[in-house]
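pipeline/complex-builder :: batch 7 item 3
reading input block
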Amino acid sequence: MKYKTLKLIFAIWVILWISFLMREMFAKGGLRVYSALLNRSLDDKRSYVTGDNFYEFLVFCNDKLPEGAVYGWTKIDKADHAKRRSTYYLYPHLEEEDADFLLVFNEPFSAGPGYELFAKLDDARYILKKKKKGN
Amino acid sequence: MESLRLVLSIFSALFIGWNILYIISLKNTRLSFLEKLFVSYGLGFGFISLEMFIFHFFSLKFSLFSIMVWWIPLIAAVLLVASKRRKSHRPGGKGAVTKKTPLSVLERFLICGISFEVIYAFFRALIKPIEAYDAIATYAIRSKIFYLAGSLPHDFFYNLSLLFPHPDYPLNIPLSETFVYLFLGGLNDQLAKVIFPIYFVAILGILYYAVKRLSGRAGALLFTFILATIPQFNHFATNAYHDVPFAYYCFTGTLFLLYWFKEPGSRGYLYISAVMTALAGWTKNEGFVYCVANIILLSVFLFLNRRTIKKRGLLNGFLYVGIMLLVLAPWLWVKFTANLVNSDVGSTSLEQLNIFKQSYKIWPIFYEFQRQIFGPKKWNLIWIIFILSAIVYRKKLFDESRRYATISLILIVSGYIFAYLIGRDDIWHMVGTTWSRMAMHFLPLAVYWLALLFGKFEPDI
């Protein structure tokens, strides 16, 4: 009786295991993601998992921000995954409140009070710099 | 070339761990070569990261030379002891040769299943760089900071760490990642993820040999297959979260304590347990639950066996706690001096420690527990089997061969419940977002407990 029960449980386990594997690979698009990543370089993979548009902007920011510069974001939520990724990729640049540089992503171009354009990737992705007092 | 450097980094950790294991397991432990390898892996990374952490106190910079050179005296001591043991070993006749039975159909299937999950775990880990939420926000950022600075920056715990989530989290895995980066010569966070599926393999290997002692090869393969195929568990071996490495240390710490209970003369098991449990505390804050649980478990064992163990038992108890404190001392020192407080369970007021006043949280806790077990999206069939087995075999739970594993699980779950009760965050949010991961920490022990319960397994396939 014990072994019959164990055999039944094992059979159910194996069926569930295979069905979950198939679901992950096909229904959830696992195979599609793996084939997209397989022949990419490390940087291209980072771009794929982060979002090509966003990653391109982060690379642009890293290139343009002066050494030791601190930055802020205009409209990305603190707990947003994109924010966490930006913290990682932009380090050693650190985020601060009331920073000299503001990173603007996916917003139409607008300098806003107290800031001027510092560097622009395109009309929706740019860096603003705080105006010096007296300007 | 990068692959070769990666292999060298893993081999270095294994080699150091092997030498540490040799010293701490001198006292009559019976471990197979592969068991030693699986234990050496966690020991190696645990102590290398601890060493790198200690560099912080002396403002030393990280380099492969500065990290490896300090292990030379240990390696020399091991070589000396090993050569003396070889000289004093009397050559005897050949031991009995155990006849290996051919693999059954079931065993072949189980081996294929386990192999598939292991290969798939490596594939999923190495196909992407680190990108999961906590993995990048909490852990990978730290390993990047350490690698770029070439050290643990002097003011890290007072300034830099406070800018990122959870400044109180231990640094075993971030420093291990930094160690790998040093070998790679760059921040390749894709290749560095290899450490996680290796922890996965090590847990499976240790479980296999643990169950093999109870129920033979077929039973060992069956329960190893069960653990390997739990979706959440094998998924977390690939996403650079710390839960699988943590589960490794928790499981090894408790398992070797259970081994020592069976063979009190083999003190090497006790030392391995103490070190591994302490390294659990060095990997995640929840490790302190396991430190306390194992100390209580040891106390229960010493009390129940006080007539046979006597004074030596008390000494072993003190030794156990002493080893744990020694391993954790550097981290505990920094935690207290830098006032690194956990945001969920830290700086609790006396009122919060009054668990009777917090008893209103019991219903949300148990509601979330059952939701994590029976919710269809999680596939937690293992916990349903666990509960049913506990009911069906209730008379066996506290018999001599199973009582300590049962008590251990009760202590661990109680520890987590206590932490939830005194937590400051909203209880529904706290349990809902963390319990399924917490349960993974003692999942290998739960599978081992199931193997203990079912006993010898002789399939007819």
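note: Residues 2-37 of chain A form one domain.
queue -> next item
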